[in-house]
């Protein structure tokens, strides 16, 4: 199986992207070669400007996809972290998860693929109450961020 990482930078109206792109994706990586560890080594170069004295930190939203036996990309997990506001190098762990789904969705996913996904990805990073949302943990992404 191979893995691919898609990323998005979400920010409030206090922030503006001056250079770089707001979203992107990594190459596909065949992780069997390194056991359970996949190294993407994918640079994200973004210059942000803030217009507020006390801004809310921007968020790095990630989606991890895996290929199935028919080489289709299917969701492996969602995750996000707040981007650090302090200068320096920061190592951040992003815990990934996906919706658990009903018994019918789980059987369908096991037989023909296609785990449940959100229609609106904003739910992953929003502060909305997700108390009734059932999910399953799917792994961890380690991110090294350099803030200048």
UniProtKB/TrEMBL annotation:
- InterPro entries, alphabetically? C2_B9-type_dom
Pfam families from the UniProt entry: B9-C2
Where does the protein principally reside? cytoplasm
Reading the lineage from the top rank, the first entry is Eukaryota
**GO CC, any one term:** MKS complex
For whether the record's keyword set contains Chaperone, the answer is no
| Record's keyword terms, sorted | Cell projection, Cilium biogenesis/degradation, Cytoplasm, Cytoskeleton
Annotated compartments: Cytoplasm, Cytoskeleton, Cilium basal body
One GO biological-process annotation of the entry reads:
cilium assembly
**Cytoplasm keyword on record:** yes
Name the PANTHER family for this protein: B9 DOMAIN-CONTAINING (PTHR12968)
What this protein is called in its record is: Uncharacterized protein
This protein's species is Aureococcus anophagefferens (Harmful bloom alga)
């Amino acid at each position: 199986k191979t893995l691919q990482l898609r990323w998005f930078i979400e920010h409030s109206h206090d922030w503006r992207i001056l250079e770089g792109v707001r979203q992107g994706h990594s190459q596909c990586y065949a992780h069997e070669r390194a056991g359970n560890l996949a190294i993407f080594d994918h640079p994200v170069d973004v210059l942000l400007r803030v217009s507020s004295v006390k801004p809310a930190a921007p968020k790095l939203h990630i989606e991890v996809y895996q290929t199935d036996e028919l080489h289709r990309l299917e969701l492996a997990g969602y995750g996000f972290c707040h981007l650090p506001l302090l200068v320096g190098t920061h190592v951040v762990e992003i815990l990934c998860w996906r919706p658990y789904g009903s018994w019918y969705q789980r059987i369908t996913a096991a037989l023909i693929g296609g785990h449940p996904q959100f229609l609106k990805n904003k739910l992953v990073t929003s502060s909305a109450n997700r108390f009734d949302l059932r999910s399953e943990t799917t792994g961890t992404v380690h991110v090294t961020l350099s803030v200048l």
